[in-house]
Design a protein that fits this description.
The chain has three helices and three strands; from the N terminus they run ααβββα. It is mainly α. The protein has two domains: about 55 residues; about 45 residues, no CATH class. The chain starts with a helix and ends with a helix.
């Protein structure tokens, strides 16, 4: 009977040790992730420098599209001032007949 109790106690101790190791590894992983995320946080001391950096490199999300499908990026871009060779064309989808469908799918309309 004592052998079974000793075996059970050893099994419980092994399970506890494994669980502690798993929890320790999970804690270390969380700490590494938090440390990586904290690198991107702006502190009060660095706030002024972060604001200056943001103001020095503004993002402009404005654009316009003409009838021919050219896209003109930027709030102050004038389409007439962009040379023809530098105009960006929006890619057109392939014609309907050029899609990669089996003949059965074309016939059935699926």
């Amino acid at each position: 009977m004592k052998a079974k109790e000793a075996e059970a106690a050893r099994a419980v101790e092994e399970a506890r040790a494994k669980e502690e190791a798993r929890l320790r590894a999970a804690k270390e992983e969380v700490e590494r992730e938090e440390e990586a995320l904290s690198a991107a946080i702006v502190t009060r001391e660095a706030l002024a420098a972060a604001i200056e950096a943001a103001l020095d490199s503004p993002a402009d999300h404005e654009f316009a599209i003409d009838a021919e499908g050219h896209i003109y990026r930027g709030r102050y871009t004038r389409s007439t001032e962009v040379p023809e060779a530098h105009r960006e064309k929006i890619p057109a989808p392939p014609p309907f007949g050029m899609l990669d469908l089996d003949s059965e799918e074309r016939a059935s309309g699926r």
